[in-house]
Amino acid sequence: MSILTQSQGMPASIRRCLGKLLAQDCLLCAAASADDILCAACAAELPQLQKPCCPKCALPTPMGETCGRCLAKPPYYDATLAALRYDFPLDKLVQSFKYGHRLALGAYFGRQLAALISNGVADIIIPLPLHPERLRERGFNQALEIARPVSTMTNLPIDATSCSRTRNTPAQANLPWRERVKNVRGAFHCSSDFTERRVLLVDDVMTTGATLDECARTLKLHGAVEVTLLVVARALPK
Question: What would the mean pLDDT of 167-186 be, rounded to a whole number?
Fold first, then answer.
């Protein structure tokens, strides 16, 4: 909840002063956007994920049926919830968030994801872990920054310590799609028992899903009964 939203009980004169002090420009068009990081017009034009889609991996399918790829080789995760499609200008926002340290975007993305979650879908939130070396380079885990507002808005606890990344694998974006599964095999370690727990596994962008699937595999090996992916954006194959 924003400061201006919390100020609704204040006198109008104080609310006007707060509005002027906290007003900011939209990251995309530079128009005044009150206390949010995007103006309403730009937020409405973010690329939407085509529906219907595969309930497993969120790729478009004609009638919302499970896609051929998931039928041929079922992933370890059980479902995917994605807020948007990874395309311009959302890709620029994600890059600004991850590499430009625009951490306020993490809160914005998290609010969009919280709206996708229905009651009872999970017991715990796990942000996809970064390798310690990558974490030192970046200074923060983008998945954790997105997960925080999701936790606040859904009252689901975050576990950011039980699952770790033990192999600092080459960036997936630099590899052919078929090589990405091999690249992340055995990259995660779990130190807790998740028996009968339903997990929301959070990340920013899902491309092939190989990294998220390997983490889901590790969670299932440690007892998780269900793993649902929760991602800001789903990239579609070209």
Answer: 65
Q: Which two tokens stand for residue 175?
A: 């590899």
- Only one residue has tokens 């370890």, namely 76
Beta bridge partners of 158: 125
Q: How does pLDDT run across 203-227, given as a tens digit for each residue?
A: 999 999 999 999 999 999 999 999 9
Structural domains in the chain, sorted by start: 1-45 (no CATH), 46-234 (3.40.50)
DSSP structure string for the chain: --HHHHGGGS-HHHHHHHHHHH--B-TTT--B-TTSSS-HHHHHTSPPPPSSB-TTT--B-TTSPPPHHHHHS--SS-EEEEEEES-TTHHHHHHHHHHS--THHHHHHHHHHHTTPPTTS-SEEEEPPPPHHHHHHHSS-HHHHHHHHHHHHHTPPB--SSEEE---PPPGGGS-GGGHHHHHTT-EEE-S--TT-EEEEEEEEESS-HHHHHHHHHHHHTT-SEEEEEEEEEPPP-
**Cross-strand pairs, 202:** 127, 230
pLDDT in tens, 128-174: 999 999 999 999 999 999 999 999 999 999 999 999 998 876 565 56
- Residue 176's pLDDT is 59
State the pairing for strand pair 163-165/188-190: antiparallel
Q: How far is CA 182 from the centre of its chain?
A: 23
Q: Given the structure tokens 């970046």, which residue do they identify?
A: 138
Work out the pLDDT band at 52, boundaries 50, 70, 90.
very high
- Contact between residue 109 and residue 95 where contact means Cβ atoms under 8 Å apart: no
